């Protein structure tokens, strides 16, 4: 029996890495006494899959995961039991039983929304012209960022992967809202977009906090909340 | 009012820049945060190693439950930050804080360090440094600092670090720590000062207040005198002993880290103590007598722990788990309980006998990991000297059994540099390894297995530890240990045989501190100032810096590591009473010289080590000792 859930990862557990996330969920499921299905072989692993490897340090309001149970359990009951046993910071907001065959969550994921709070070295001076500046940033044909992969730094073209971007200045902060391409078809990272914008605005930033607010997949070519795809 | 670190700020500015930030965020499942205002004693518990090592330690979880189980006390954890985090904390001037409430260490009533390993001493200084707390007790006098306390196995020779500490708790801490805190709470309520509290604390079992004793040394470094300075301080500090493990507090809801830690599993402490009497083994002396938990209680604890942790492994831990008189039944019942849950069992160490092998086979039906056996020495002569009652034919029987059951990778653990060791004993290690390989190949051919047989020989340099029959002798000189490693390495010529050895320089420094005295505290400070830290980690251990530190202090590590004592000498740790008599240890030393075996008191009656007589306690077994061990 397959179940899909949508969960949030808030506060300090942002620093739980993707590998550790797997452990957090399998332990919570065992504590809840849910009959989780395991892989065969010498080293059986619980059957749980996640939509994406969420970056360490990022919070998220809409991660998706699927798990397989050996028995049918009422979805609401699963949600109640698992929310009781998950460590604080994690919560499952929705769950549904899946019928028939479908692509993996990883393959379904197409876009994500993010909110980024950029702490600036000083108050942003040209707040009134910010919208215009963002528009001209987006009007560029090409936006190239330096992406680190292991120990190599590579140039990466990200313009096509930015579907929308809005900015708002408030005190020493810039608040960015963006929708980016996500998943296996060219993932664009929100910190790259934020950094490219800061560079474009010639505004030095100190730190940023990033939250993923929604994940999407395509259903009949329509962008749809991943949980429902 | 207490000084707290701004967690949001830390998470935004510092943690994204360090490796594995989850080490520093706390908030794990089952962690306990109490209101400091409502606590009469606030205890910061420091583990002088990195988070994933510290959180793997069962004693930490026990103490956490003991202290936080008391409504008026709180215990919060702090680990040694990894080197990248140490740098960031210094740059940003962030003082070291506890993971529960993010409170600065200087705000606590007590700051405790668990002393698991001599090579973590510099980390204690790193932590004090990050906490802005002076190293030396003398320099803290009059200041509003926490009382710095220590416990754990290395507290049995606390002298090398005595100058840093206000108080040590020697032996089982479960009961004494609560008595200590109750006394403190009352002293503070009565408006007494810390010195009078420390004086009164001397009356509690296992409490050593180093400031109340004076030690003097001869120019050659022998202890001339070790005397209490006040009448309250006992001449001998008797270890604190938890007599009944059955009724002892047990962590039924241990903290479950997010991180992958070293031992990421349920640790079920099935018994404490061991009386096999291996003459090199310090734990076998320190944790006497043997105290078993009953099968019923262990089963209940296992069930509770499965529910409260969600771990996928249960490890039956102790110094020698196969000794538990109800192990077979316990394993059966645990396997029943685990059926269909995906939870597996494991034994951390195996005795070299058929019973242990039977247990291993039973348990490995789920996961078949490698097997480790510890013959400890390569020849019968050497094994008799160390009283390791293992015969070559036992090892052959057991390893054959393992190969037949489908294991292909075995690890054999040895020590080199043992007393009275000759080159034949070292050659014997390789000889044993080759014999086991040969056996494995023969078995593989018989059962038609095509998989490759491999045997790993693992050897560590012997450290003659206090409170063992070998405490009177010195460690092999460093060059000799290295020569012995090369001798073995040179003799290993089969591809299937792998030889692993520990850095002999680490064993050398470890021995200097294990056998050291009060003159060493300044060496630790000098080493810290030169940048020594995480000395137990090969990538950070720097032998040259340690040598400079010793030299600067006018001392030599070899003098400490290699020093021999005579029977009549005062040993630096003589003032501590483990319950096992010094005269017994000396007899055992003589027996070693005669290659005379001393049986386990479980099988053949009392060997008069003294513990049960002198400390009014007894061995607590739950079942019958089987005839054949």
Describe the structure.
The complex is a heterodimer of chains A (229) and B (629). Chain A is 21% helix and 40% strand. By secondary structure, chain A is of the alpha+beta class. Chain A folds into two domains: 101 residues, 2-Layer Sandwich (Alpha-Beta Plaits); 119 residues, Alpha-Beta Plaits, CATH 3.30.70. The mean pLDDT of chain A is 93. Chain B is of the alpha/beta class and 629 residues long. Among the domains of chain B are: 232 residues, Response regulator (Rossmann fold, 3-Layer(aba) Sandwich), CATH 3.40.50.2300; 116 residues, Transcription Regulator spoIIAA (2-Layer Sandwich), CATH 3.30.750.210. Chain B is 35% helix and 14% strand. In chain B, the strands form six sheets. Chain B has a six-stranded mixed beta sheet with strand order 2-1-3-4-5-6, covered by helices on one side. In chain B, strands 15-16-17-18 form a four-stranded parallel beta sheet. A three-stranded parallel beta sheet of chain B has the order 10-13-14, with helices on one face. In chain B, a hairpin with a 5-residue loop joins strand 7 and strand 8. The model of chain B has no long low-confidence stretch (mean pLDDT 95). The interface between A and B is medium-sized, with 34 and 32 residues.
């Amino acid at each position: 029996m397959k179940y899909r859930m949508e969960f949030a990862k808030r506060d300090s557990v942002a620093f739980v890495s993707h590998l550790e996330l797997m452990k957090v969920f399998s332990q919570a499921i065992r504590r809840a006494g849910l009959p989780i299905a395991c892989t065969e072989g010498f080293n059986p692993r619980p059957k749980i899959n996640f939509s994406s490897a969420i970056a360490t340090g990022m919070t998220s309001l809409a991660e998706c995961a699927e798990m397989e149970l050996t028995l049918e359990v009422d979805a609401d009951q699963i949600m109640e039991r698992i929310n009781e046993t998950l460590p604080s910071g994690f919560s499952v907001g929705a769950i549904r039983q899946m019928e028939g065959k479908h692509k993996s969550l990883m393959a379904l994921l197409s876009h994500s929304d993010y909110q980024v709070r950029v702490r600036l070295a000083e108050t942003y001076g040209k707040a009134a012209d910010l919208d215009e500046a963002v528009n001209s940033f987006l009007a560029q044909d090409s936006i190239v960022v330096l992406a680190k992969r292991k120990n190599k730094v590579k140039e990466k073209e990200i313009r096509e992967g930015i579907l929308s971007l809005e900015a708002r200045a408030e005190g020493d902060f810039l608040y960015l809202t963006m929708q980016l391409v996500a998943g296996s078809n060219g993932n664009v990272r929100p910190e790259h977009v934020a950094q490219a914008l800061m560079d474009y605005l010639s505004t030095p930033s100190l730190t940023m906090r990033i939250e993923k607010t929604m994940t999407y997949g395509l259903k009949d070519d329509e962008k749809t909340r991943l949980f429902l795809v | 009012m207490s000084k707290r670190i701004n967690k949001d700020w830390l998470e935004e500015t510092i943690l994204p820049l360090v490796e594995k930030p989850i080490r520093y965020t706390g908030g794990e499942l089952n962690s306990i945060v109490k209101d400091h205002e409502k606590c009469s004693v606030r205890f910061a518990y420091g583990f002088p190693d990195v988070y994933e090592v510290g959180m793997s330690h069962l004693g930490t979880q026990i103490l956490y439950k003991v202290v936080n189980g008391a409504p008026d006390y709180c215990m919060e954890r702090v680990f040694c930050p990894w080197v990248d985090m140490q740098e960031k904390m210094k740059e940003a001037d962030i003082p070291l804080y506890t993971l529960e409430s993010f409170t600065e260490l200087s705000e606590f009533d007590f700051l405790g360090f668990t002393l698991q390993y001599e090579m973590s001493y510099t980390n204690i200084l790193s932590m004090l440094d990050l906490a802005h707390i002076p190293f030396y007790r003398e320099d803290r006098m009059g200041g509003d600092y926490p009382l710095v306390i220590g416990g754990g196995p290395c507290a049995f020779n606390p002298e090398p670090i005595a100058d840093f500490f206000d108080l040590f708790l020697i032996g089982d801490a479960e009961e004494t720590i609560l008595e200590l805190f109750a006394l403190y709470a009352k002293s503070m309520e009565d408006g007494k000062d810390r010195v009078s509290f420390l004086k009164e604390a001397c009356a509690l079992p296992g409490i050593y207040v180093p400031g109340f004793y004076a030690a003097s040394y001869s120019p050659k470094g022998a202890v001339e005198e070790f005397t209490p300075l006040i009448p309250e301080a006992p001449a001998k500090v008797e270890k604190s002993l938890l007599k009944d493990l059955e009724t002892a507090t047990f962590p039924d809801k241990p903290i479950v880290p997010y991180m992958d830690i070293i031992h990421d599993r349920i640790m079920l402490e099935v018994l404490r103590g061991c009386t096999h009497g291996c003459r090199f083994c310090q734990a076998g002396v320190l944790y006497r007598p043997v105290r078993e938990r009953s099968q019923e209680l262990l089963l209940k604890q296992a069930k509770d722990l499965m529910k409260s942790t969600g771990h996928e492994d249960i490890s039956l831990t102790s110094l020698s788990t196969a000794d538990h008189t109800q192990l077979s039944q316990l394993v059966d019942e645990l396997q029943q309980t685990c059926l269909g849950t995906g939870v597996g069992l494991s034994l951390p160490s195996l005795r070299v006998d058929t019973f242990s092998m039977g247990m291993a086979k039973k348990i490995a039906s789920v996961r078949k990991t490698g097997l480790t056996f510890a013959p400890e020495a390569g020849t019968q002569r050497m094994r008799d000297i160390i009283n390791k009652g293992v015969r070559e034919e036992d090892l052959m029987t057991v390893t054959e059994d393992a190969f037949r059951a489908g294991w292909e990778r075995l690890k054999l653990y040895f020590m080199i540099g043992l007393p009275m060791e000759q080159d034949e004993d070292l050659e014997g290690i390789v000889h044993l390894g080759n014999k086991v390989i040969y056996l494995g190949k023969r078995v593989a051919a018989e059962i038609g297995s095509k998989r490759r047989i491999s045997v790993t020989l693992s050897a560590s340099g012997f450290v003659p530890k206090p409170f063992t029959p070998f405490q009177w002798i010195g460690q092999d000189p460093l060059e000799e240990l290295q020569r012995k490693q090369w001798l073995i390495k040179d003799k290993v010529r089969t591809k299937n045989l792998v030889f692993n050895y520990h850095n002999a320089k680490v064993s050398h420094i470890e021995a200097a501190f294990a056998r050291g005295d009060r003159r060493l505290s300044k060496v630790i400070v000098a080493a810290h100032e030169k940048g020594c830290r995480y000395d137990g980690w090969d990538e950070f251990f720097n032998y040259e810096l340690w040598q400079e530190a010793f030299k600067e202090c006018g001392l030599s590590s070899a003098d400490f590591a290699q020093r021999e004592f005579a029977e009549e000498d005062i040993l630096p740790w003589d003032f501590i009473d483990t319950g096992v008599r010094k005269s017994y240890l000396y007899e055992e030393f003589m027996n070693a010289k005669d290659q005379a075996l001393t049986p386990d008191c479980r099988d053949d009656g009392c060997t008069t080590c003294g513990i049960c007589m002198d400390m009014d306690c007894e061995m607590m077994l739950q079942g019958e000792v089987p005839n054949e061990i």
